[in-house]
UniProtKB/TrEMBL annotation:
Gene3D superfamilies xrefs: HRDC domain, Ribonuclease H-like superfamily/Ribonuclease H
Protein name: Ribonuclease D
Domain HRDC: 236-316
Pfam family for this entry, one: HRDC
InterPro entries hit by this protein: 3'-5'_exonuclease_dom (IPR002562), Exo_C (IPR041605), HRDC-like_sf (IPR010997), HRDC_dom (IPR002121), HRDC_dom_sf (IPR044876), RNase_D-like (IPR051086), RNaseH-like_sf (IPR012337), RNaseH_sf (IPR036397)
Length: 418
């Protein structure tokens, strides 16, 4: 039993209402550490604690280009909570690194914060992700506040997650919110771990946590400009070339200034310019957004990008659709590969049945793209009846051992009946 009276709840238990609101940390909001001496003291404080380290970080998504952490929250039993501003002490974190990198970390939605923390030299020896644990336990709502309410019986004061955390000084209300994000993480870990143990999923979760901890950063997607909102309204390759040039120019400006691209030029403005392809500054400024005072200063920059697209020879224009190395969209399978379409239908039905049986979302049982590739041509039709062949294909695609143990027999049986 913790100081908060935490107990694990059943995956089928109703959410308790009403619940007491935890509006502020029990011991108050600690001062923000922003000096080298403060980092050393924080490291000593955490070293004197016990058990896993609760970790969270606040970024400035939507405001800044980089995924860097602008505030780090750390908590450990018998040590309390530490808030660190990494901006002024980024080069002074060695004492903290020496302590925390050897600890077992607890995070909620770890994949969001690990990259920014790793950039500062902060990496866990072991990892526990309470959000992922909630998914594996079959919880429909796995946000931090929802899980704290369900398993610990407390409501959390929220409201600043989407704030501009690069702002200085940070408002007191934001710091209160940030401290609450780790206030109950140790208790939440205990509660969800008990739930997973009761469901026999502890080992499955351990494999998933280790996979996240050791995952290499994905290579940035090529043709990221094709994700521009409303680009589907454009049909001509020349228009797509304008989108590509404007997107690339904006991205370079955003990276150099560390500003979110949408704050430099919204996607809607890019598509508007590509739809008409203006040839003069005056034509450009007659378009919505480009005529505003902020954009007028960059008129020549934007027009130069458009002119580069206009000058491209036909053979260098982007294709109408994005090149893809995988199978086509499933709605085209019936015509192009009827046997694969049948396999996918059977496989999806098998995965749905398995998901209901073990109470884990299908996407956590197997990455949907990997399943589609398997059904399309990953293993030749003659081998789909062999469990060894399917298992090897999924292993090579990154599926963990617990996933393969569950899904391979179901898929082989499904392929045999399709």
């Amino acid at each position: 039993m913790s100081e908060f009276g935490a107990t694990a709840g059943s995956a089928d238990a109703p959410e308790p209402t009403p619940v007491p609101l935890l509006a502020a940390p029990v011991a108050g909001v600690p001062p923000v550490v922003d000096t080298a001496d403060g980092v050393r003291k924080a490291a000593d404080q955490l070293a004197a604690g016990t058990g896993p380290l609760a970790v969270d970080a606040e970024r400035a998504s939507g405001f800044r280009y980089s995924p860097r952490a602008y505030l780090i929250q750390l908590r450990r039993r018998d040590a309390g909570t530490v808030l660190i501003d990494p901006i002024p002490v980024a080069a002074e974190l060695d004492p903290l690194i020496a302590v925390v990198n050897d600890l077992d970390w607890t995070l909620h939605a770890a994949d969001q914060d690990l990259p920014g923390l790793a950039d500062l030299g902060l990496t866990p020896m072991r990892l526990y992700d309470t959000e992922l644990a909630g998914r594996l336990a079959g919880f429909e709502r796995v946000g931090l506040a929802a899980m704290v309410e369900r398993l610990l019986g407390f409501g959390l004061a929220k409201g600043h997650g989407a704030a501009d955390w690069s702002k200085r000084p940070l408002p007191d209300a934001w710091l209160n919110y940030a401290a609450l994000d780790v206030e109950l993480l140790p208790e939440l870990r205990d509660a969800i771990a008990a739930e997973l143990s009761a469901q026999g999923k502890t080992d499955w979760a351990a494999e998933e946590f280790e996979y996240i901890r050791t995952a290499t950063r994905s290579t940035p997607r090529t043709d990221r400009w094709r994700r521009t909102s409303q680009i589907h309204t454009l049909r001509r390759p020349r228009q797509l070339a304008v989108v590509r040039e404007l997107w690339t120019t904006r991205d370079n400006l955003a990276r150099n200034r560390d500003i979110a691209p949408g704050r430099i030029l919204p996607d809607a403005a890019i598509v508007a310019a590509a739809s008409v392809v203006p040839s003069t500054v005056d034509e450009l400024r007659r378009l919505s957004v480009f005529g505003g005072p902020r954009q007028r200063r960059l008129s020549r920059t934007w027009l130069d990008a458009i002119e580069r697209a206009r000058a491209l020879p036909t053979e260098e224009l982007p294709p109408a659709s994005q090149p893809f190395d995988g199978p086509p969209p499933p709605n085209r399978w019936a015509r192009r590969n009827p046997e694969a379409a049948d396999r996918l239908t059977a496989a999806r039905a098998a995965m749905t049945g398995l998901s209901e049986q073990v109470r884990i979302p299908t996407e956590n049982l197997l990455v949907p793209d990997l399943l589609r590739r398997l059904c399309w041509d990953g293993v030749r039709s003659g081998d789909l009846a062999r469990a060894e062949a399917v298992d090897e294909y999924l292993r090579a695609g990154g599926a963990r051992a617990w996933q393969r143990e569950l899904v391979v027999p179901r898929l082989v049986a499904a392929f045999g009946s399709s």
